[in-house]
Write a structure and sequence with these properties.
The complex is a heterodimer. Chain A is mostly beta strands. In chain A, 0% of the residues lie in helices and 47% in strands. Classes of the chains: A mainly beta, B mainly beta.
Chain lengths: 117, 112
């Protein structure tokens, strides 16, 4: 079974520029997550999709971050304009409904390491 | 607001010993708790899940305990090996559909 794919793996941009990340979840997984992980910290959820609908985006800085999941499969996360504090690893994860009807186990991609100069 | 704390210092142990990592939480009542492993440059990998009505869970050399009174989980790796060196994250969730909240992680180094 193929894992969660993300691209690019690394990105260096200057502040105020824009950047986009792409994620392809595991086939059949209805739920997709974007996390931000700052060095030395745990992942922080930015947005959670169920199919192509948003379940939770309470921690997404909506003035500069946007995300979409067209057709309920792959997803893009965009930052425009970027700030220095956006330097982090952006992780995509997906999960499916389990036997209990829940989706606790998340499968993560390798992440995109973003450096804003 | 909810807070999750893990071992504040990196943990260094000798090969063959048991590593014990802690996860403490406040202002939260999770329905379940998970442990993930994260290697440098890679995404977290799921290891174990324990629910609020379970005291202990085992998987090969791994053991997790969950004490909802103390608001604490302990994660044990027995007969540790250098290959176990990684960062270990605990994560808490209220329901199967709610977001999971991650702790800051503990870095474990197993010395040969």
């Amino acid at each position: 079974e193929a894992g969660v794919a993300q691209s690019p793996r690394y990105k260096i941009i200057e502040k105020r520029q824009s950047v986009a990340f792409w994620c392809n979840p595991i086939s059949g997984h209805a739920t997709l997550y974007w996390y931000q992980q700052i060095l030395g910290q745990g992942p922080k959820l930015l947005i959670q999709f169920q199919n192509n609908g948003v379940v939770d985006d309470s921690q997404l800085p909506k003035d500069r971050f946007s995300a979409e999941r067209l057709k309920g499969v792959d997803s893009t996360l965009k930052i425009q304009p970027a700030k220095l504090e956006d330097s982090a690893v952006y992780l995509c994860a997906s999960s499916s409904l389990g036997l209990a009807g829940g989706q606790e186990t998340q499968y993560f991609g390798p992440g995109t390491r973003l450096l804003v100069l | 607001s909810q807070k999750i704390e893990q071992n504040s210092e990196a943990l260094n142990i000798q090969e063959g010993k048991t590593a014990t990592l802690t996860c403490n939480y406040t202002n939260y009542s999770p329905a379940y708790l998970q442990w993930y492993r994260q290697d440098p440059g890679r995404g977290p990998v799921f290891l174990l899940l324990i629910r609020e009505n379970e005291k202990e869970k085992r998987k090969e050399r791994l053991k997790v305990t969950f004490d909802t009174t103390l608001k604490q989980s302990l994660f044990h790796i027995t007969a540790s090996q250098p290959a176990d060196s990684a960062t270990y994250l605990c994560a808490l969730g209220k329901t199967s559909y709610d977001k999971v909240i991650f702790g800051p992680g503990t870095s474990l180094s197993v010395i040969p």
